[in-house]
Amino acid sequence: MNQAAKIVSDALLGLDFKNVEVGGTFYTIKPPTIKVICRAIHHFSNIDMTGDSIIEAVKNLPEITNDMLKGISCFICGNEDLAGMLANGTFEEIKEALEICFSMMDISAFQCVSSMKNVSMLAAKPKQ
Is the whole model's pTM more than 0.85, yes or no? Predict the structure, then answer.
């Protein structure tokens, strides 16, 4: 099965999620909506960037910032409510969770799906 068909079928069946363990608890991260991405960016924008990307900045941080935990919480549950629970995780667990969050926004999935010829059949057809 080609990658585009797998992406579409996983999305339609609700299988397009990833699980991450932080502080002994497993969390499910689903593909974020624009609203969730904006909430997370609001918190991530408070992190001082020292690398070329936020992942590079995280590698250089000796401690986990509250804003980073709030941003990850937005990806998990849509708001900042889990930031306190995520603080129980190790630096490596938080870094992995952050990488998974960003992988859920990978542009290649959108490009792959948009190249399918019959994806348009999944969308509602406008009335003429």
Answer: no
Using CA atoms of 82, 87, 70, 32 in order, give the dihedral in degrees to the nearest 10: -60
User: Among 87, 54, 88, which Cα is nearest to 70's?
Assistant: 87
**54, 43 in Cβ contact below 8 A?**
no
Which two structure tokens, joined as six digits, stand for 46? 């408070």
Question: Which band of pLDDT confidence, cut at 50, 70 and 90, is reported for residue 36?
Answer: confident
C-alpha–C-alpha distance, residues 106 and 96, integer Å: 16
For residues 104 and 31, the answer to whether their CB atoms sit within 8 Å is: yes
73, 86 contact by CB (below 8 A): yes
List, for residues 88-101, the tens digit of each pLDDT value.
Answer: 888 888 888 988 88
What Cα–Cα distance (Å) separates residue 49 from each residue in 56, 60, 84, 109? 8, 10, 23, 27
Angle between helices 66-77 and 34-44 (to 10 degrees): 170
For residue 117, give the amino acid letter. K
